[in-house]
Design a protein that fits this description.
Elements lengths: L1 E6 L4 E9 H16 L14 H7 L1 H24 L11 E7 L3 E9 L23 H15 L2 E3 L11 E10 L2 E14 L21 E7 L12 E14 L6 H7 L8 H36 L6 H16 L4 H9 L1 H10 L1 H20 L6 H14 L4 H10 L3 H19 L6
Antiparallel strand pairs: 1-2, 2-4, 3-4, 5-9, 6-7, 6-9, 8-9
Length: 432
């Protein structure tokens, strides 16, 4: 066996080898002898099957296994020459050449390694910044909002026209093409005007209507509504039975005790302090997500040089290509199948983004190790459950959907990325 190994760069290597057929035949003999000890053939006792019979019965499969054994030997010797540990490999080795003749097999095996990444003193390269400032006026406004959330709904004292924010108690029935439809009728329904709970345009047409008035509302169901009603014009007969508003709530010790049960120091000042901290966290999260995290990731990606495993980049390009194919016509897809040059040209348009994505993934992975950051499977589950409940979905069904679709690793990686970037940014907040 002749082997020539070449380390292309820090993430890719190539092993060329010439395997003689004598070596393959030796492997055939060895595998056949092992198989003869365990296989069962009619007319022979187990373990007493002649090798010649085994070779006759398993001929093609034996040759295939013998060649595979030779390839494993090529890989092992090549990695030894290159001083590359198996633990450093990423993915499966790729056999890019397998030319078989009467006396030999010429092969080329490509392997990819986890790149070594020197992040330097990454945190100190990020400028320090101040926490978003929260004013007393911001806190007071939030307290009023919280208080209103605890307020009871009461009937308006005078029969005025409705406005945004009012709660209308209504009876309604909907018609499409003059016929009532399932789910289009309700009595004593409480609708907060401006909440966006109903079809676009429905709530707007109730503004200016008074109690005990009847009104006809005309709307169009959105195209993405689902079912037979999507895109259909509809008419609703609506009767306004009551108009309710939030009652005034005083911000006092009684409200505080209701909001902070079990709090020993349940004072208005304590509540203000908690509200201020909440607002600071909300504003900081907004700043992180909208500006600082994308900027930080871009800075890390563009400022960190290392070699990328070729096959990982190609996989990323494949995923981008498959996604793009989802919006192509059948003719366009057919043309790509029949025109290799055009397909390759299209693939190259995704390369830059693919390389950026792969680079970002390796950087985040490296920083997660450095910062001792992990996201366990149960945390992924809890996140999916919470988001499902927020959107009115069944949590377990949502989790099973993501699991079956193979999305859990991507969700986990996204959570790791978020936690890594937050950790770095938190370390650069100026002390007050």
């Amino acid at each position: 066996m002749e082997i020539k190994s070449n380390k292309i760069n820090g993430a890719n290597a190539e092993i060329e080898a010439t395997i003689s057929m004598d070596e393959v035949n030796e492997n055939v003999e060895k595998i056949a002898k092992q198989l003869a000890k365990t296989t069962t053939v009619q007319g022979f006792r187990k373990g007493k099957v002649p090798v010649s019979i085994v070779k006759k019965q398993y001929g093609a499969k034996l040759v295939e296994d013998a060649e595979a054994e030779a390839l494993r030997e090529v890989l092992a010797k090549g990695l030894e020459e290159l001083n590359i540990a198996n633990t450093s490999l990423i993915g499966e080795p790729s056999v890019t050449k397998f030319d078989k003749s009467d006396d030999k097999i010429e092969v080329v095996v490509k392997v990819a390694m986890r790149p070594e990444i020197d992040m330097g003193d990454y945190a100190s390269n990020i400028e320090e910044f101040d926490k978003p400032a929260i004013s007393d006026e911001d806190v007071d406004a939030k307290l009023i909002e919280i208080a209103q959330g605890q307020a009871e709904l009461v009937d308006i004292k005078r029969n005025r026209k409705m406005k945004s924010g009012d709660t209308a108690i209504i009876d309604f029935e909907g018609f499409v093409d003059g016929k009532a439809f399932d789910g289009g009728k309700a009595e004593d329904f409480a609708l907060v005007l401006g909440s966006g709970q109903f079809i676009p345009g429905f709530e707007d047409q109730l503004i200016g209507i008074k109690r005990d008035e009847e009104v006809t509302i005309n709307v169009t169901f959105p195209e993405n509504y689902g079912g037979e009603l999507a895109g259909k014009d509809a008419e609703f007969k609506v009767t306004v039975k009551q108009i309710k508003v939030k009652d005034d709530v005083e911000i006092n010790e009684e409200l505080v005790k209701k909001l902070l049960p079990g709090e020993e120091d349940a004072s208005v000042e304590t509540l203000k302090g908690l509200v201020k901290k909440q607002l600071e966290n909300e504003e900081l999260a907004k700043l992180y997500n909208e500006t600082m995290k994308p900027e930080l990731l871009e800075k890390l990606v563009t400022g960190t040089a290392f070699d990328l495993p070729e096959f990982v980049v190609e996989q990323e390009i494949d995923m981008a290509l498959n996604k793009a194919a989802g919006s192509m016509s059948e003719d366009e897809i057919k043309e790509l199948r029949e025109n290799a040059d055009k397909l390759n040209e299209l693939r190259e348009t995704f390369r830059e983004d693919a390389e950026r994505s792969v680079r970002a993934t390796f950087i985040i992975d490296t920083l997660a190790i450095a910062e001792n950051i992990r996201v366990e499977e149960n945390e992924v589950m809890q996140t999916i459950y919470y988001e499902a409940m927020q959107t009115g979905q069944e949590p377990q069904k949502a989790y099973e959907h993501y699991k079956e679709a193979g999305y859990l690793p991507a969700i986990q990686m996204s959570m790791v990325e978020d936690r890594v970037l937050s950790t770095i940014l938190n370390s650069r907040i100026k002390e007050a």
